[in-house]
Fold:
Amino acid sequence: QKEVEQNSGPLSVPEGAIASLNCTYSDRGSQSFFWYRQYSGKSPELIMFIYSNGDKEDGRFTAQLNKASQYVSLLIRDSQPSDSATYLCAVGDVTGGGNKLTFGTGTQLKVEL
Amino acid sequence: DAGVIQSPRHEVTEMGQEVTLRCKPISGHNSLFWYRQTMMRGLELLIYFNNNVPIDDSGMPEDRFSAKMPNASFSTLKIQPSEPRDSAVYFCASSLGLSPETQYFGPGTRLLVL
Structure:
């Protein structure tokens, strides 16, 4: 059973600070990694994806991947109250001709004024 | 453009009743996914289709669950008979091909089985 682990939080950070969200995965062969944001009562929306080791930046968001350690993280710079949400880590599985995602249970982020 | 459309948005039913959830994918998307989200288990993939054909149904919890995609613009997820432990939010998502980068979620159906 492939597993994706996240700390459920809540992670509280002050406005303007850097929020660091972490995720570990069990399948060493995993090749694709995704971060989704989910506001309370809403559906998940994709905010970042990363395939290669290292960092990938998009605006205030940076995804970091370390395949050797089976670890992926999401950094949010200059955190805003509107970033308060649950962040879901997902790992892709391309076996069997498909591309299915296994999700972690999410980390709740609270950005405080 | 309209996103993924799901109906109903809320459903309350009694144990033993049949429940049918409906989904209309984004026009032009040829892959469709059904997910279930609970506090305990998080977001789980139940089944997905590519070009109307089921590719992987290993996430379907048991025979009480069935899903169909009769055409490119419509899919159903049926639970018969329903049980209280089926209470969850059910999301439908669609994508262009099987690429997760193009996967968009619908608003979800919140199901409560009494």
Residues 93 and 104 of chain B are 5 Å apart (CA to CA).
